[in-house]
Design a protein that fits this description.
By secondary structure, the protein is α/β, with parallel strands linked by helices. The protein is built from 13 helices and nine strands. 50% of the residues lie in helices and 13% in strands. The longest helix is centred in the middle third of the chain and has 29 residues.
């Protein structure tokens, strides 16, 4: 078992850290939220007073932060960057969803200090984090991937090696761009059916067994009351926020511009989520996009 520092205990990070502790690892956890630290302690983690305290003498550091600027500040450019405190040979696993350029830049800084840094963004949502069934998409060397895999398997079910540093982030934004497109299309189709008198539960069942079936229909229906245990049935709370989907679609657009890849549907999805976000819905689950369609005439 390893001694692991876990930085960032939000909706995803908290359950991930708890699963590491459940697996028998010694987890030193830190977050700016005192309530998140209390929950981590109840799950068997050891709360730290700061990120710097959390990483003292650990073998592995895992971070789950909102954006690239937070990752770079924590490890490289902040007032007390962690790379100046970590021992050579430490493995850093960043599970944040950030831009690939920042991931590569931070990895290069780590390599100068003989510290391993891999990007390992996740897919699977809060439910997957709680159940330990996340998908990890890893960018790093084969050797780093092999070192990280036993740790990642405590938190996830599907572990993929996408390529070198930054590849995990590119694959993740490709996936999330498709997810945003699928959710927007699912909301559009269901809304049209409902406005023409169809029962959304019946219509969902029809489409699930037909050529329009997709992940949103199967496990994340956006219409309240159609499916239990999803954000739509609890006021669109506790899921993947509109703000985060908009951020990820922005990252996808950056990748598309850098590579001259055409993304007309991704651009359209981003515009829809931006419209929904600008109406004050940024903290709701991204499946709440159906309200945008339901309110329009």
């Amino acid at each position: 078992m390893a001694t692991i520092a876990f930085i960032g205990l939000g909706n995803m990070g908290g359950p991930m850290a708890a699963n590491l502790a459940k697996a028998g690892h010694a987890v030193r956890a830190f977050d700016l939220s005192s309530s998140a630290l209390e929950q981590a302690a109840q799950a068997g983690c050891h709360p730290a007073g700061s990120a710097q305290d959390a990483v003292q003498g650990v073998e592995v550091v895992i971070s789950m932060l909102p954006a690239g600027k937070h990752v770079e500040s924590l490890f490289v450019s902040g007032e007390a960057p962690l790379f100046e405190r970590l021992e050579a040979g430490t493995l850093v696993i960043d599970s944040s969803t950030i831009d690939a350029a920042t991931a590569r830049r931070v990895a290069a800084s780590a390599a100068e200090r003989n510290i391993g840094f891999i990007d390992a963004p996740v897919s699977g949502g809060v439910g997957g984090a709680q159940a330990g069934t996340l998908t990890f998409i890893v960018g790093g060397s084969t050797e780093q991937f092999d070192l990280a895999r036993p740790i990642l398997e405590c938190m996830g079910k599907n572990i993929f090696h996408a390529g070198e540093q930054g590849a995990g982030q590119v694959a993740k934004v490709c996936n999330n761009m498709l997810l945003g497109i699928l959710m927007a299309g699912t909301c559009e189709a269901l809304s049209m059916g409902m406005k023409n008198g169809l029962d959304p539960r019946v219509l969902s069942d029809i489409m699930k067994q037909s050529s329009g079936s997709n992940w949103a229909l199967q496990v994340y229906n956006p219409v309240p009351g159609v499916m239990e245990g999803v954000p739509a049935s609890r006021g669109y709370q506790g899921g993947f926020m509109v703000d985060l989907m908009f951020k990820d679609l922005g990252l996808a657009m950056e990748v598309s511009q850098q590579s001259a890849a055409a993304t007309p549907m991704g651009s359209a999805a981003r515009a829809l989520f931006n419209l929904h976000k600008s109406a004050g819905n940024g903290e709701l689950d991204f499946s709440s996009l159906i309200n945008l369609y339901q309110q329009s005439e």
